[in-house]
Amino acid sequence: MKHHLTGLDHPVIAVRDMESARAAYERLGFIVPPRGRHREWGTGNWCIQFANDYLELRGFLQPSSAPQTRELLDFIERREGLMGIAFGTTGAPASHASLADAGLHPRPVKPLTRDFELPEGTVPVSFELCFLPREATPGLMHVVICGHLTPERLRRPEWLKHPNGARRVAGLVGVAIDPASAAGAWLRLFEGVTPTADGLRAEVGDGWMLLLTPEALEQRYPGVTLPPAAEWPCLAAIAIEVEDPKQTRDCLRTHGVGTEAGGRLIIPPEQACGVVLEFAACSPPR
Predict the structure, then answer these.
(1) What is the pLDDT of residues 63-84, one digit of tens each?
(2) Residue 228, preceding bond cis, omega within 30 degrees?
(3) DSSP 8-state secondary structure symbol assigned to residue 135
(4) 115: closest CA among 62, 168, 51?
(5) Which of 73, 195, 210, 252 has the fewest CB atoms in 10 Å of its CB?
(6) Any idea of the CA torsion for 215, 180, 209, 134, to the nearest 10 degrees?
């Protein structure tokens, strides 16, 4: 377990309007729990929960001097979509020490509190975060190591049963003119880094990441609009694992969303707040 990283904890999707984002993801067949509010940042989120990871839809709520707020505002001025990834860890301080020893210049570990706005009252959810500089994580954008201090407050069984059958975040797909140029940095960060015919692959826990050429990304998602070239290298898509593709297909057809390509069900970015979503069957056991 390199740098004590356990997997893909949650991709972060930047959205301009939180209520519209919630409605969009409910239309895609997700259960969206109550809103959260970051005390330290002035941002808010909807966290679509799975058993061990989640999707975060993050938006702006109130002015703040926190750099994370400025990063979000800068991003949504340009567009909506995937702005980064939080990796899980056995402990943020341990990851920080390991990353520093590897010369990756992690920023100091900081606390974060999300006020979960539940019907019975506000519940604080606590984290320890360690951010990495973008030059250490090519293609992955804003990267944070996320240690959960109150995981028991994060999930309820009724939030995990999505009508579309989604079970977990399986992987992330990014785009780069020259994916191989990221290999050196990725090898310092991750285990299982391997070149592919059209890009680069890495594994973190039971999750994976692909960095593809624009041509390969277009082939994987035919007819889908890519992120602007000025943003490359960047993340473009989230792969969601489902138990029963027929259930997912039926759910998406009911709402008139999605297409099929290469055995995967694809949600284009205009239907998912700027990010491509792909739904595919469960992977075989490792």
Answers:
(1) 999 999 999 999 999 999 999 9
(2) no
(3) G
(4) 62
(5) 195
(6) -110
Residue among 94, 147, 142, 95 at smallest CA distance from 125: 147
Residue 169 three-state SS? strand
- CA separation for the pair 188, 190 (Å, rounded): 6
* Helix and strand numbers, DSSP H then E, in the chain: 6, 16
Report which DSSP code applies to 129.
E
Could you read off the pLDDT of 42-67 as tens digits, one per residue?
999 999 999 999 999 999 999 999 99
Show the tokens assigned to 168. Answer: 């977990």
Domains, the chain, with CATH or none: 2-159 (3.10.180.10), 166-281 (3.10.180.10)
Contact 242, 167 (CB under 8 A): yes
**Residue 263 is encoded by which pair of tokens?**
């055995």
| Residue indicated by tokens 């994370």 | 68
Q: Which residues pair with 151 in a beta bridge?
A: none
Helices marked H in the chain: 18-27, 67-78, 92-101, 183-189, 214-220, 245-254
Q: What are 272's two structure tokens?
A: 């998912």
Asked if 224 contacts 276 with a C-beta cutoff of 8 angstroms, the reply is yes
pTM attached to this predicted model? 0.96
Q: How many residues does the chain have?
A: 286
Closest CA to 232 of 87, 81, 113: 81
